[in-house]
Structure to design on (260 residues):
């Protein structure tokens, strides 16, 4: 059946390590979001270059992150920042509850909520990979993307 | 000898059975076309690989594909109930769409 709601969300972490710790904590809950992807700093920066227009919410998001990490954590590091994009898909009540629970876990790892728009953008970013391959091909670079898997 | 068969013209949804949460779909259908057409029945597969736009149902099955929403809907092997597999040695498929049979290997 077509799901009642689709809630996008994003969390920003100080670095990859805290992002991984968050992912691991989520994996222990057995209450996974429909999609939950950790985007490393390189891809995060790539996402920033792909932003549609200047002054977009993405910039505002990164600005907010700078403040958040300068004030609350050890300082903003553009080279370490890691994002997690999430999607909750299903019955409204259940998904809202799950959404809240996941954000609570995020707090434990100093995750800063980035809101639905950035979650959606990050989510769509994954579809871009195939296109960037075509773009690279036009410039004589052949590359392919692979998915790997490993235990915690 | 290797024969490569273009199946992109086999791109129809043959039927949708909402009572049993089943649909019969031809292997050559592209991901985006599949979701668009299923929407008219009020259903989705929930399978969403990054290559959604240019990969097909048959390709997903052949490569045991995963998708971004697998936490909710499962990987392709969780979604597929039955396949008709045509090989040079013969044709394989399960006799019916029973949810489960507890003997023999499960090629799905």
């Amino acid at each position: 059946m077509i799901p009642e709601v689709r809630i996008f969300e994003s969390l920003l972490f100080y670095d990859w390590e805290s992002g991984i710790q968050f992912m691991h904590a989520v994996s222990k809950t057995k209450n996974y979001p429909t999609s939950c992807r950790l985007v490393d700093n390189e891809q995060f920066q790539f996402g920033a270059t792909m932003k549609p227009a200047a002054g977009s919410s993405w910039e505002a998001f990164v600005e907010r992150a700078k403040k958040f990490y300068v004030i609350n954590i050890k300082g903003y590091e553009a080279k370490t920042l890691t994002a997690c994009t999430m999607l909750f898909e299903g019955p409204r009540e259940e998904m809202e509850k799950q959404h809240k629970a996941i954000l609570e876990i995020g707090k434990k790892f100093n995750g800063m909520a980035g809101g639905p728009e950035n979650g959606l953008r990050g989510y769509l970013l994954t579809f871009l990979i195939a296109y960037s391959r075509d773009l690279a091909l036009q410039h004589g670079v052949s590359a392919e993307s692979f998915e790997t898997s490993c235990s915690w | 000898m290797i024969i490569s068969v273009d199946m992109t013209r086999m791109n129809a949804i043959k039927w949708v059975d909402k009572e049993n949460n089943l649909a019969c779909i031809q292997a050559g259908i592209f991901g985006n076309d599949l979701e668009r057409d299923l929407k008219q029945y009020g259903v989705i597969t929930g399978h969403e690989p990054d290559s959604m736009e240019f990969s097909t149902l048959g390709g997903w099955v052949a490569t045991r594909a995963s998708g971004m929403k697998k936490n909710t809907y499962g990987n392709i092997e969780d979604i597929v109930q039955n396949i008709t597999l045509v090989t040079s040695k013969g044709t394989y498929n399960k006799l019916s769409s029973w949810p489960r049979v507890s003997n023999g290997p499960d090629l799905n």
